[in-house]
Design brief:
globular; 8 strands; six-stranded mixed sheet; alpha/beta; two-stranded antiparallel ribbon; about 20% strand; 6 helices
């Protein structure tokens, strides 16, 4: 019988994270011991996604997996972020966790960056959604019964009227052809508030 590997899951609270976590839990080969989220402490919000930390904590509590945050300032350099993340991941490694899960789908540069940083700690990255078609993933997210709202958009890539909209087929239909259906190029971010991870 194959041993179940413990891992920490880098959790943004958005749709890609939810879909990746759902896939990992369904596979039953990995025990997700903790969710790990970067929070910008000046604002009390999830970095990049802009979701209030209070909502993040409520979300994690309903999902039922312990949450740990990496706290950075709004002016933190990349080096400062990496050092704080290194310390937290080193703690996880000390407790016997050697794998870190990411919800990334197709950006090679991001994957290489994550793998390089983990190699320094002799840890390994897992990418359960890697190489998937983003259009198919968007449809699967909806078909599974997940529900999410768009929390922010890159106004250089997507009209601001998309912010605050439900992430559903109407949203996907209205997206310009230049915008990835999963927002994989940073066009938009989401917050998941219901679905199969959230129980009854």
């Amino acid at each position: 019988m194959k041993a179940i590997r413990p891992a920490v899951f880098t959790w943004s609270g958005g749709k890609d994270s939810a879909l990746a976590l759902h896939k990992v839990l369904a596979g039953k080969e990995t025990e997700v011991c903790a969710l790990l989220t970067t929070v910008t402490e000046d604002y009390g919000r999830v970095s990049m996604h802009g979701v209030r930390e209070t909502l993040l904590r409520r979300q994690a509590a309903v999902v039922g997996i312990p949450l740990r945050t990496v706290r950075i300032t709004k002016d933190a350099s990349n080096g400062q972020y990496e050092e704080k993340m290194r310390r937290v991941l080193a703690d996880f490694k000390e407790s016997g966790i050697h794998h870190v899960i990411y919800g990334d789908i197709c950006l090679d540069g991001i994957r290489e960056y994550r793998e390089k940083n983990l190699e320094k700690l002799e840890m390994k990255a897992l990418f359960p959604l890697w190489g998937s078609d983003t259009g198919s993933l968007a449809e699967r997210f909806i078909d599974l019964g997940f529900r999410a709202i768009t929390t922010c958009v890159d106004s250089k890539q997507l009209d601001k009227t998309f912010c605050g909209r439900e992430y559903d087929r109407s949203f996907l239909h209205d997206l310009p052809e230049s915008v990835d259906p999963c927002g994989e190029n940073g066009e938009f971010h989401t917050f998941v508030y219901d679905g199969p991870l959230f129980g009854e």
